């Protein structure tokens, strides 16, 4: 987890990313204007180009990525929300404004909120002195920046146990279920052994024999994730490895072509191509059986039903046809809540701009700075804290009445539909912000993101000649990538600031401390020999 700051000349993976990023944006803009000429789509192109210029010129630098890895990943997901829609919709023969009802306003506000996020990130990363603050020093003393294989495997077992126990709960973990919610906070630890695949990142040695055990472990994680009936959980271990691998390549100046022969790369591309189709089928089968979760069905039975659906060719063909029909047709927001935008569920997860358009539509309908949205936000802010603390402070909050998302509340106020609450609809930072705070959302979002990025940067420690990555940061690397993706409201960064960060740090420290005492492990900040990094 320690890196030398000496210089080298190669930055191949970053140069390739910039090169193909430029190519994609240029050809996408040309294609959009040729095939879908309209002022609305020109505005969408402008949003994508402005976002790419800001991201490429100011932030797509090796020094920034390695000195601010975890905050960079959080910021990256916000950039992707502006970048993905243009090429992704074009590939699917759709305009970028597909299904929008207020496209010009949506593209303008989305560009504006991205600029606000960029300013917040800029304010965090551009400073003259590279000094550790009090929080970084505290985490360093608490052993956040050192580990060994024993600790990682024990953490992984704890995470697996937590996952299996939460799967034993018939439905999702509910508000008020203290035991299940407590265990749910440890689930991410199941990915701890994965960082052993990259010794220069984890700072621990690992033999090829150990790698075989990890690959078997990864396969088990993927199979287990099917039982969650969650598409995100299904891809979580694979994308965790992909992110760690990308940081590994960048840090060590390694070319992909030096690791894999051209034939292996071609095979991998074919595997990805056909694998995406298989993942799409799994996704359809999961969605088809998801309704069974409401019928108190056992998780193993749910997993069995999902695989049975996959094996029924006629059913799968019908589901594919139904999916294409649903995705090729959109309905107005006046009719119902409709998020259909991109066919690929992975791209849709990080690039669904129609959700932004829809939330802005309802923000306009109920009025900016809506009093009911503000009241709900305040109540959910109090609900961030544990009930014992609220009770001690004399604050009465019934969390069982808060089992709904900001998107649900926005839709409920806008339509008066009594069935709106509890659907856990996604929302957007700008739509939720305007509906709750009006134009004050821009400075509020700036402050929330600024301090969130600062906390994330505490998982990196600077010495005179090196930087050190924390074990917790590496384990939860995909969590950082998804924390601010294009589906959140303002309550998400606030919850991270008030509770999420500190709770995760405390529970992680406590577990590592107990494991160290049980196995008689001592602190050993061993510096390993690494290739020099070019900054």
Automatic annotation (TrEMBL):
Keyword Transmembrane helix: yes
Domain of life: Bacteria
Annotated keywords: Membrane, Transmembrane, Transmembrane helix
Record protein name field: O-antigen polysaccharide polymerase Wzy
Keyword Transmembrane helix attached: yes
Segments traversing the membrane: 16-35, 41-59, 66-86, 106-126, 138-161, 210-227, 265-287, 377-395, 437-455, 467-484, 496-519
